[in-house]
Every structure is written in C-alpha cells, then in structure tokens.
Amino acid sequence: MNRTKTVSVKTTLQLLLLALPFIFTNTLDAQEYVYRTFKDTRVVNIHSPETLPKGRLDVRISHRFGDFAGDNGGFATFYGLETASDVSLGGEYGFSDSFTAGLYRSKGAGVSVEGFPGLRQLLNGLLKLRLSRQQEGGGSPISATLMGLVSMSTQEKLEGSGNENAIASFPEFSHRFASHVQLILARKFSDGFSLQLSPGYTHRNLVPFEDENGMFSVSAGARVQITRSFGLLGDVVLPLADSRGSGTGYQPAIGIGFEFETSGHVFQVNLTNATALMETDFIPYTTTDWAEGEYRLGFTISRWFNL
Amino acid sequence: MKSAQIIISHSRFIAISFVCTILLLGACTSDQLPEITAADCSNVEATYGVDIKPIIDGSCAYSGCHLDSSPGRFDDYAGLLPYLEDNTFRQRVIIEQADPTTGMPPNYAPEDRPRDLSLEELILIECWLDAGFPE
Known about the structure:
- The structure holds 2 protein chains of 2 kinds.
- Chain A is mainly β.
- Chain A has helices spanning 2-24, 279-282, and strands spanning 56-65, 84-96, 99-106, 122-132, 143-153, 177-190, 193-204, 206-207, 214-225, 230-240, 253-262, 265-272, 296-306.
- Chain B starts with a helix and ends in a 5-residue tail after the last helix.
C-alpha cells in the first residue's frame, strides 16, 4: 500500500515537472510583476526562484564547518570551526533576466550510512530558467523557476584491488556524474513573508550497493523580512525514496539562517545538518542528525558585478 | 499578438529543452557498486608492536602530522588508544580511505610520505581492529 502511494506521488511529481513549462510560459507577457520574492538566489541549502538580472555576475563563496556537537564536535574541534565539511567557490551569470548559468567548484562531503564517501572534488554546472513571475491583479499567483545542476567528480580514479567498493573506483567515466533538476514554485505573500515549494529529481550514475540511482524529493523554504536589510530563512528537503525513510540512517536536510543585504552583497549565516553544499550531494547523502548535535555553522558571501 | 505567440513558443521550447537536457545528462547510467565484503582475517594475527606501529610511524606519526601538529600523538599505543576506542581511527583509515582529504593518509601528505596505504596494510589494520587492537 505504502509502495503504491510512493509510486503515485513520484508519478504526480514527474508529470508536474514536465507539464509546468506549458502552463507558466503563457503568462510571460503580463504586467504588474512581483520582484524579489527572495533576496538571494539561495534559501539555505536549496535554490530560491530568483534568477540574476541580465548582465550581472554573482561571485559566491560558501562554507560548511564541522559538526557543532555530537561525537565529532564540541570543544575538541571548537564546535566544528576547526574542521571544514564542504567549501564551494564559483559564480553565475545572468544571460537574460530569465536565464542564469553558473559554474562552481566544491569539495563534496556527503557520505552513505555506512560512512563511505560520495562523489568528491566536484565541478558543478548550474542552469536556472524562470518560467513565470508572480503578478499582482489577476496574473500568475506564483513565480516558477526550473533549476538544473550537473556535478562531475574530478577525483583521481582509484585503481586496484581493495577499491571495488569506492565510488571513486569509477568503473565507467559516466560514474563521475550526478544531476538534479528542480521546479521551484514560490509566492511572496507580503513584503515580509515569502514561501516556496519545490519538487525535484536527483540521479546518481553510480551508487553504493542496494542504493537507488534516481530519487524524487520535495523541499520547502521560507523567508521572513525583519528589517530592510535583515531577513530570516529556513528550508527543508525531504527525499521521497524508500531507502531514505525513517530509520534508514539518512536524514532530511534542514537549514535555518539569517542574511544581511547591502548594495550588491548578500551575507548569509546559517545552521544546517547537511554537510554538503550541492543538491546532488546533500539530497542523497545527508546522514547527520540535528537531534544528535550534528549540525554545523555555515556562511555564504555573494557579490554582484555588472559586466 | 503574433510576436507574443512567438515569445511563448520560444519560451516553451527552451523550458522543455532544459528539462530534457538535465534529465538526459542524469540518466547516462544507473549502476551499483558490489556488495561490501569484510577482509579475510582467518590467517592474520596482527599486533600493534610488530605489525601496526611501523605503518603508523611511516604514514601518520611524523613531524607536521599526528606527532606535533594534527590532533593526537600517534607515536605510541597510549596516544592512539582514544581514537581506536571511539572508532575514529577505523572511520578515517578504513571507511573513508577513498576520500582525498578526510581519508587517512590524505592526498595532501608530503611527497616523501605515503598518500595511500597498500591493500596488505589495510587488511592488516582492519584485522587488527576487528581483533580488538591488541598491543
């Protein structure tokens, strides 16, 4: 019964992903648009619906420290500040107001429940396409954006006996890749509150024994504006896979944070149980648990340049 | 009106192409790694003093690493023991060995030091840990 229900949810999400381009492109020429549903292109872990304005380059540095508490945290690592779980450096560019492309380098940090590493030393290509923008006065009630991410590991291939169980054994070149596509539906309810829901699909070309290559997920994010330049953020990502259910050792990625916005800059500080920064990494590979103190401090610095 | 239709048609084309491109890239292969098998320790009787200390002295307990810089002093059994008891040693040496930075020894070790342990060394260490890390 549960399996039938899961299949039904998966089918619905798949149809939704494929159908929404048809629905939302009908409203692109309407007026009275709502801008800046979120102030940044990310919430905490996940992408927001925002794309960059045409001709704008966004250079981003993101960092996730080690566990704040639990077995690997506490004073021994000064609450995770002396260890880094993931680091990302890169940028994205607005080719039009509706289309953004980016390239990031990240260390990679996700692990399986057995503790084995996922993909490491990643090059991440990002595409974002705005399908519709929320309008006031009878237009589209929500904003919709498609986000796609392809990650490729540049790690040296591990050869020889003893490495058969390592992802980095890369029996085929395609095993270096994982990808993620996500539809982001968001609404700015007021100047002080925005909410988004995002069905997504993640595919890893090579997975540990008895794991799933493809998995659907659903995520939610929210932003509350406190002052003109200060906002609170939160998001959660829930993989919809039997192998990621309760009791499997895998955890949903949950993040909370706040962000300061100044002219051309966004600075975000957050706490999250996700060790990794890219969707291809933290959606299938989050095993760290808030309840065990396995959350970490993180930050993102974003700087816009006009090109 | 006609130009609006062209824009809508163009946008649809881009959106559909976008979804298909990402899904196609993601659907290259769907493969699994083989089942994990434990090391065969039936003929291995490793002890710290005879078998393990030489590996650790050469790969971990040198200046700039787990002797005077990184956490832990690994040049004797007492210094190593806390990391054996809390399973950190097994996690970083055996389970995370494929990780270039957290797997020990790491890929950023000095050029004159090992950056990977051999299969024989890994089997010795795993069997020694399984046997309760005898001194």
